[in-house]
């Protein structure tokens, strides 16, 4: 049963005559009569009786009219919801990052975004952390924040900002008085990282693995606060972004540049190339870029 037949039955009943139904459906009398015959052929029985020049529903017609009323209302509501989604009025953004420390960017962005788009929900998918690109490709995310621009043929990577990665060490560590360290120096230390696999860890992906280098020992500890405590005890070193380590810098820990000119990491927001995104995604990305630019300028001033 085609949707147009359901609309036909509903119009005839609710308008009370074929003439008024013709006007509502923008059909000629012959076209309306032809569609009604087609609908009855599909159902296999009459849908209307003619009583004193009026069309009265048969039992089958009553059943079909009841179904048409319910189905068309749901269909119209669905079409309106989709229209609002595509116009940026309502919907959901599922987002994740490759690092838990990156989530601190989001609260001010969410506050600003919700004031502009109150009917768009932001769903932070914590279980996708460390694997945002994989989840984006699988359709489990809408956006991913990452520093690893892989699968560029399928994914669009929009630059957010560049941050400097620094080695954080105890004030008693041999590196504490050095201006910088290089990749080869990591072979002699215990390195603390937040998670596996190693190809999601920027120091390994860009500085160590390409040169076939490995630290003397590896400690995997998801919590930054706990990692800093190990650093204070001179039990290892950790590599953090300049903005991530700022709350922990005091007399007990020092920061050391990696490489003479520094080790910088480009952050991106990633989305699928072959997907049409509602307009509110563009606003969310714009708000995120603005927030990160403000943060970067604040860091520079300080």
TrEMBL record:
<feature type="domain" description="HTH lysR-type">
    <location>
        <begin position="1"/>
        <end position="58"/>
    </location>
</feature>
<comment type="similarity">
    <text>Belongs to the LysR transcriptional regulatory family.</text>
</comment>
<protein>
    <submittedName>
        <fullName>LysR family transcriptional regulator</fullName>
    </submittedName>
</protein>
<dbReference type="InterPro" id="IPR050950">
    <property type="entry name" value="HTH-type_LysR_regulators"/>
</dbReference>
<keyword id="KW-0804">Transcription</keyword>
<keyword id="KW-0805">Transcription regulation</keyword>
<dbReference type="InterPro" id="IPR036388">
    <property type="entry name" value="WH-like_DNA-bd_sf"/>
</dbReference>
<dbReference type="Pfam" id="PF00126">
    <property type="entry name" value="HTH_1"/>
</dbReference>
<keyword id="KW-0238">DNA-binding</keyword>
<dbReference type="InterPro" id="IPR005119">
    <property type="entry name" value="LysR_subst-bd"/>
</dbReference>
<dbReference type="Pfam" id="PF03466">
    <property type="entry name" value="LysR_substrate"/>
</dbReference>
<dbReference type="InterPro" id="IPR036390">
    <property type="entry name" value="WH_DNA-bd_sf"/>
</dbReference>
<dbReference type="InterPro" id="IPR000847">
    <property type="entry name" value="LysR_HTH_N"/>
</dbReference>
